[in-house]
Each structure stands twice: as structure tokens, then as C-alpha cells.
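Q&A log
Question type: sequence-to-structure
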Amino acid sequence: MTAFILRRLLGTLPIVLIVGIITFFLVQLSPGDPAMFYVSADAPPQEIERVRTQLGLDQPVIQRFGFWLGEVLQGNLGISFHQNRPVLTGFLDALPVTLWLAFFSLVIALVVGIPVGLLSALRPNGLVDKFSTVFALIGMSMPNFWLGMLLVLLFAITLGVMPAQGYDPTSFWTGFRSLLLPAITLGYSQAALVARMTRSSMLEVMRQDYVQTARAKGLRTPVVLGKHAFGNALNPIVTVIGLAIGSLAAGSAVVEVVFNLPGIGRLVVDSVMRRDYPMIQGILLLTAGMIIVINLLTDLLYAIIDPRIRYD
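Response status: OK
Response body:
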């Protein structure tokens, strides 16, 4: 197991390097001059050139990339143009909000998706199964920003029971209330995906001979599901959950903008609007690393769930 983990970690280094290269050059080739965002509209060319020199944009792209890569290898992601502080500091300040949002969204996806999928698999083509199909189609088809605005309109504006925007970290309860609507918005689509995968995986397992034998022995349905079927259907579900966590990280940008949350997604959007190259590059690189670690943990979880899987 240790050798497998080391091989996987070493194998991720080229991936992170490729992500860094692509990110750097795509950001550098994007239209717009970052210096124009930090001077007045009627600034003379000399002032603009001075700001470009101050930001290091007067050097060739290849030279800037070599300098940036060298700093990254030393653990330095650079200084933000807009915030004028280390990129890592800005990332860590915004990280807790995004992590809490992802956590609550994942809880909603699991608490809703797995039971709905199990009930659908118990009686295929029944009433619950048809409801599950409609639930999943809506969840996977409706854009996050549209669902978010509908929730704000209903619970914040019409009923007035939830905050419309912003994040209040005064206490756990106020923070939870601030993140509840965004978590529902982000978790609904993932709950739909988990429900469909749970149903599909359970239907496949329920057709196996050992499950049919357990039923023939007269075992109760909860025992058959919990002891014989669900454990053997977990691997595909875990795979979807691992992908869902990556999707939560990617989809949080839209939700954080809609609900005005000071998380990583909002930070990326603001950095793109201000052409804050170091912040964009640093966040994308760190996010890629987080997703790689999540995929590794998902692979390791397979061996815990299914004893037949060995990585020795």
C-alpha cells in the first residue's frame, strides 16, 4: 500500500506540472493589460509602463514563466497584483468558506441521493422510481445559478426566513444559515447524480445469486440491503462521490458569485476580472493538487470497502 501511494504521488508531479504550464500560458495570453486596471483611465503611457515594470510584465513570457516555475518549486506562488500579498495567504483566507460550502453540499448530496437511489432500486418503475427519475433529470439539467436565484426569491425575498447573500462567521449557526441555500443549490445536482448511480449499482447487485439466495431464505429486506447488497454496490457510488467533490470545487465559483460568498470561487472570478495573474495561476494550481489528492483517497477507499482489492 505504501509503495502504491508513493507511486501515485510521484505520478501526479507531471500532471501538476502540465496543469501549471497550461494555466500560466492561457492566463498570459488572455486579452487585456493588467496594468490598465491599476492606473487611472487618463494615465499617461509613462505611468502605464511604470506599472507594467513594477508588476514584472515588461519581461518576455518565457522569462516570466521560468521565474514563476522556479518560485513555485520553492513553495512561493507569487504576490497578488490586486491584494498586494502572497497568493497562498489569499487562498488560505478564502479556503474555509469553500470547504464548509463543499462539506454541507456533500452532506446534502449523500443524505438525499443515497436513500432516494435505494428506494428506487427496491421497486423499479414504481412510484418512487418515477419520482427519482424526475428528481434526477431536473437536478442534472437545471443550472446552479438559476436554482440559486429561485431559492433566494422564495426563502429570502418572499418568505424572509433566510439571508439572501453574504457570509456571517459570527457563530456556527449564523455561518450555517449563510451557507444553507448555497449548499442546497450546489448539492442538488450532485444528489441527483448519486441517486441515479446508487439505483443503477443496487439493481445490478440485487440480481446476483447471493442476494436472491438471501431473499429465498426469508431474510428481511433491510438485512438483505444492508448486509448483502449495499456494501457490494459501494464502489461505483464512491467513484461518483469522488467526482462529485471535484465538481463541487469547480461549481462553487458560480454559486459563490450568486450568493456573494468570500470563497475561492469568488476569489477566482474577481481575480479574472482584475487580470490578477499570480492569484489565478496559484489558485488553479492548488485546486488541481487538491483534486488529485481526492482521487488518490478515493482509490484507497476502494481497498477498505472491498477486501478483494489490493494495491500491494
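Response note: Residues 88-305 form a domain with the MetI-like fold fold (CATH 1.10.3720.10).
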